[in-house]
Amino acid sequence: MWGLLLYPLPVWLFLTVLPTFVLEGEAYVFAALAGSLAGSSWIRPAYVYREEALSRVVALKKSLEECLRVYVFVAMLLFMAAVVETGTMISC
Question: pLDDT-based confidence at 82, cuts 50/70/90?
Fold first, then answer.
């Protein structure tokens, strides 16, 4: 779907797929944020967890547990985007 942005679309067609772009884009940003948090907690645990003196392994495990909650939210957003995309494909 993202390739449609590069193709000259009529305005009405772009507006029909805009909700899918917003939901998918939001999900991708949240997933990237969670991945960056996991990576930075492994590289510099003191930067992510300032009040706690954690080793790299413990900080990585803790951040992965936190990222799991974010990834559940990302999966819900992607599911909603799939439902919206299916609805727009059927209606067009």
Answer: very high
